[in-house]
Amino acid sequence: MADKPLMVLWTDGAPLYVGALAAAGLGDHLRLEGVDRAGTLSDAQKAEAEMLLAWGAPPGLLAEMPKLKWVQTTTAGVEGWLARPDLTDALLLSAAKGVHRVQMPENILAALFHIAKPIVSAAFDQVSSTWTRRTSEPLAGKTLAILGLGTIGAELARKADALEIRVTGLRRVPEPVDHVAAVFGPGEVDRMLGEADFVLNLLPVTPETLDFMNADRFWAMRPDAWFLNFGRGATVVDEALIAAVTEGTIAGAVLDVFRQEPLPPEHPFWTTPGISVWPHVGGLHPNRDAIVAELVVENTARYLDGRPLLHLVDRARGY
Prior knowledge:
- There is one protein chain.
- The protein has helices at residues 14-23, 43-48, 79-82, 103-116, 119-127, 151-162, 189-195, 215-220, 238-246, 288-305, and strands at residues 6-10, 31-35, 49-54, 70-73, 92-94, 143-147, 166-170, 182-184, 198-201, 226-229, 252-255, 275-277.
- It has 319 residues and is of the alpha/beta class.
- It folds into two domains: 6-99 and 286-305, NAD(P)-binding Rossmann-like Domain (Rossmann fold, 3-Layer(aba) Sandwich), CATH 3.40.50.720; 103-277, 3-Layer(aba) Sandwich (Rossmann fold), CATH 3.40.50.720.
- The longest helix has 18 residues, at 288-305.
- It is elongated.
- The relative contact order is 0.13.
- The model has no long low-confidence stretch (mean pLDDT 96).
C-alpha cells in the first residue's frame, strides 16, 4: 500500500468521490483518504499526500506537504488559490470548470424572467388576495451582453438563442462563438455595454478585471438596462453600482456574488430599491458532488497516465 500515491479528498462528500474513483478502476492505483471539510489533515496526510481535492486550505498548509504535486479544486474560481504564497510554480492546479454548465445558465435565465415578468408582484398580490393584471416585458428581441464569454456564457447563448434573445459577448480574443451575434474585444467594452438591454458579468477575478464594472462603465450602459453579476463580487465597485441604480443611470441589478460572503446584514445592497440579492445560488446543484466527481475521475486518470489535466489553471491569466 505504501508504494501507492496518496490522494486526500478534503470534502464532506468524500465517500461519493471514493466510490466514483473505484467504479472507474482507479481505486487500486491509489490510497484514498477522506477528510470532512471542517476537519484538518493529519501529520501523516500532510507528509504523504501527492494529490489533494479541496475547496480551499488554511494559510501555509501547502508548504507543509512536501510530496504534494497536484491540487484539484472543487470550485471554478481559483483567485484564492493563486493569491497563496505557498502555491509554488511546480504545483499543478486544476479548476472545476464546466460543472456549472446546466445550473448556472438556467439560474441566469431565471434572473432574466425575474426582471421581465411580474412573478414577484403576483406572489405579493396573492398574500393580500389582490387581483392585478400586469403586462410582462418580452425577452424576445432583447440584447444580452456577456462579460466573460467562456464555457458558461457559450451554453447560456445556446439556450438564450431558443428564446430569440440576441447575445453579444466580451472575450480576450474576439473569435466567433456559436449563437453569439457579435463578439467584442477588450477595446470595445463601452460599445457593447451601450447596445445591451441586460449586461451579465461572468468575469473571473484577475488584475485586469478587479473593479472592472466601475462608475464609467455603468455610465456606458443605457438607463433602461439591467446589470446581472454571476461572476465574482470583486469585479464590481459596490459604491458605483449602488449610485448607478439609485440615480437612474441603469434600471437595476440582480446580484448573485459579492465581495464578502455571506453579505453582511448592514450592506446597502439589501435595502437599495432596484437591487435584488441572491445568496450565491447560481451554481448550486442537488447533485453537484457527483458532477465534480466525474471531472475528478477523468483528471485522476490523466494524472496517473502522465497526460495533460483538464482545466489546468493558467497562472498568467488567473483562471
